[in-house]
Amino acid sequence: MEKFYHASKEDEQKSHIEIPQGYTGIPDYAFQSFLNLQSISLPESLTIIGSSAFEGCSRLQSISIPDSVTSIGSFAFAGCSRLQSISIPDSVTSIGRFAFEGCSNLQSISIPDSVTYIGESAFYGCSNLQSISIPDSVTSIGGSAFEGCSNLQSISIPDSVTSIGSSAFYGCSNLQSISIPDSVTSIDNYAFAGCSSLQSISLPENLTSIKYGAFEGCSSLQSISLPKNLTSIEAEVFEGCSTLKNIILENGVKNIEIESFKDVNIQYIYFDKKNNNVILSTQKDPSLEKTCLRNDFTAENYRLVMNQNYKDNFNQLSNWKDEKKIKFIPPEFTIKIFPNSQLQKYFVNNNNQRWGKLVKTLGFDTLEGTEKNNSLTDLMKIYYAIGGFSENQGESEKAYEYILKYVAVSKNPNATPQEIGQEIHSRFSKITLNGEYCKEFAQFFMKYYKTNPDFMNFRLKDIDGDLMDSADYLCNAHNSFKTILKNYPNRVVNGNEERALLTPRFVAEHCSIVEYEDVEEGNELLAETVGKYGYSQVQFDRIQEIYNKAKKIKDKYVIEADKSLGTNGIYFRILEKDDPLGFVIGDITNCCQHIDGPADSCVDDGYTNPEAGFIVFEESLTDENGNPTGETRILGQSYVWYDSKTKTVCLDNIEIPHKVLRELRSKAKDGQGISSEDLISVVKECAESIMRKMNDKEVKVERVTVGKGYNDLKQELSQHFKQEINPKAKNKSGVYTDADEVQYLIATYDDFTKNIASDIQTVVGQAKADIEMIRSNQNGRRFGE
To answer: Which residue from 348, 401, 358, 405 is spatially nearest to 379, judged by alpha carbons?
Structure first.
């Protein structure tokens, strides 16, 4: 039970007080302003020192806190101006706000490893405090914690600290250096303001933001290096840093506005080619002048040099020039936008010379200033996008001719280069270049643009189904084309099958990933998966409802198969009920099996019926050396269901994109790579695996069939399997089916067991032969053979 010591009238006159054993706490304000108190003995039973307990005891010189105390309250020793030293025991876990504020004679203090938090203004105004050791247990240094500690010369901040509060070291005018650990991600307002002796400071690699006035008045600071993960510097951070010569922006720093340095007299901007750093300097540095195209500190130059692609390209080009691999460094706009990974292609097959010829032919070299920069930048964007800098010379030349014939033209036959440049700028300025050019986009653009430059200008419906304002989706189409191809790998630019075409409207509708409201916990992957395929909020709500039902019956799922062994890199798998892929495999394989499609009911049934599901056939991809990449390509898929009356599992329809089927059949003819015959082998393996697994689970399966209607693989199926006549399996769910008229018989339980018996007999026969050979060899050795 807690027992607090309450000071008496007599105590107020004493210079020394001894609190008897048995007391557990000193209440708030217990000895506040006891001006005669010089020392006090605290009992070992004490656990609590309340707020303002000794506040204003200006003659108190020393105090020993027993090991039993766990917390020191706010203002506990505030204003104890003669207190020179104090020992804090290991039992204390927190030091309250203003706990030692105004202890102007306190020279040193040891904070134990048990303390995790140093409160706001805990040592505010401790002007004689020279050093302090902060233990590894502390995670936060409160605002103004050491403000006004004007004699503090050094301090070590441990790796455990994650935040430094506002004004934490404000006015520590003798602090000369400080190292901040990598655990700190933010430096708050005025954290080191007024540290006029601070000459150097090491900022952590993980630092992301420096708040308002953090280093204001650090008049001895000469250089500071801003780490690569920094993304935010607020105003007046370096105001009054009168001796600051260099601010080094390490390679990777981005999104720092030029206004962040308005209070520093920066005159020059340099690029340190060796370290790929940007240096902002108040003084001219001849040793760095040659490593930057510009060195005047202007907003334009700052944005240019801070562009990461520019820095990487400039560095590479400078090295090539030093090595005499190239004779000149291209203009700044080229360095800024040309993808670094493709930079070498600027120079192959006379690409740079052809580009220069294009510029002159169009008269763009006669333009000046911003108009020239805009025109050339955006001309290069579309020229690059359609293959102007391809390593294939034929593609480059085709792009050159296409620009002249269809792109750099105007409705006005007398249009000036300036007017053509403005039109190119208005159409293509939002294109972003990233990596190798996309040949499919080039085909798409060349197919439609030559007959109608406005082919991507129309109105689409928003997520709620309302018509949006007319927009030009061309630049978005380019920027998203590779993603669209990844999501829809079997769509083509040119072809005879309408449902597989990448039409302008289809591309525009899939330029962005849809984000949904009301995504339930655990359904994040579902939202991410279907969002790539442009489903509306209304459609997603229905998908999520189906998905939630599916997860509830996951353990009741009837259709199972052993793990696929695969044939020549082709594998099958039965999707689990909580696998979102089933909602989009119809999109991937260009078929109608998707929400609001003709086979919408198959999607619903495949998820919510324990006796139905989906099978996916996929290829394991390899790199150019034949090594597995870990990625797969979906070759085909099928809605699958079980008829308990006929004890049949039916693959309703094997859907294979025509693009894939042509490829597989072509390889079947020339014998190179995986073929349609290999896929048939995997279909059979899948049927046998289903039969084996389900019968093991005591779900009787006597046959596995596949529907013929609209089956993309029916040519091969008819060559390998017989048509099933009676009794034909029936889908009891009443859903859309392609197996209601004709089914091919892939496997029967009798044939399956016969094959197993035959395999066993073969193995046994081989074993007997091996044993006989061993005996024969042994007999031979016995008789000296």
So the answer is: 358
